[in-house]
Design goal:
With 258 residues, the chain is α/β, with parallel strands linked by helices. 44% of the residues lie in helices and 7% in strands. It has ten helices and four strands; from the N terminus they run ααβαβαβαβααααα. A four-stranded parallel sheet has the order 2-1-3-4, with helices on both faces. Helix 4 crosses helix 5.
């Protein structure tokens, strides 16, 4: 690990997660498009076994959002870093907020964006337990607001196949092949040793909402992180950026008709 990488791991600071645009740069980008679309990464702060950081879901959401921002003229926002991680409460370090709080935060952000002329918001969700985000988007759409949730399960499946991920989306539930691959590509300095021997599967999780994760795994891992690789992480992000195209087209076409 390089000196800078070692310092980053020691301090827990992930470079490149927070956008560094100036207000003039945002103004210039907005002037060049027919409709402005903002992208909000939503992660979590929860256990990911012994080898991935608590901020893994935030780092994944930010990596996806950065890939999108590199391919489309969107307004990239800083991440929401704490969300609904109640199923991981048995592990030290996990922090959660309530679903109504997350709902209110995203709705307030969307309202603030509209006041500044940004009419469309895409929520990039990095944590599967943020079920409420689907409700946020549905309710906003019913009010006539422009909002989308990304990636959908179909987008992840397309990315999984393109990247050669061997684990199914059912098996790859937490700290597995996909998350390990994305961090090996985007933030290798934060991947600790041990993922190579941490595989654990538990496909039947029908009581997860009642019992939490601790009923299904002692390590906190459900998946096969040993299969993760930098190459898979790169291809996963590239595929997701391509899958974002129809979302961008839908939101900007809707804006153009108003």
């Amino acid at each position: 690990m390089s000196g800078s990488g070692a310092r980053a791991a020691a301090t827990g600071v992930a470079h490149g997660v927070v956008p560094t645009d100036t207000t003039e740069e945002v103004r210039t980008r907005g002037a060049g498009v027919s409709a402005q679309v903002a992208v909000l990464p939503v992660g979590s702060f929860e256990q990911h076994g012994r080898f991935l950081p608590l901020a893994t879901d935030t780092l994944v959401a930010c990596a996806v959002a950065r890939e999108i921002a590199g391919a489309y003229p969107v307004h990239l926002l800083p991440p929401v870093t704490i969300s609904c991680s109640h199923e991981h409460a048995a592990w030290p370090g996990t922090v959660s907020i309530s679903a109504p709080t997350l709902h209110a935060v995203v709705r307030d952000i969307a309202e603030s964006l509209r006041r500044s002329g940004v009419e469309a918001l895409v929520v990039v969700n990095g944590h599967g337990g943020n079920y409420v985000l689907g409700n946020v988007v549905q309710e906003a759409s019913a009010r006539g607001e422009r909002m989308a949730l990304f990636p959908a399960a179909e987008d992840w499946e397309t990315a999984r196949e393109r990247a050669g991920v061997l684990t199914s989306l059912l098996t790859d539930m937490h700290a597995g092949e996909i998350e390990t691959s994305i961090l090996l590509h985007a933030h290798p300095e934060f991947v600790r040793p041990g993922y190579e021997s941490a595989d654990f599967t538990a496909d039947d999780r029908r009581h997860l909402l009642t019992t939490g994760m601790s009923a299904y795994t002692e390590s906190g891992v459900i998946g096969r992180p040993s299969l993760g690789s930098t190459e898979k992480g790169k291809e996963l992000l590239a595929s997701l950026a391509e899958s974002f195209g129809p979302y961008f087209a839908l939101l900007t076409a809707t804006a153009a008709r108003d």
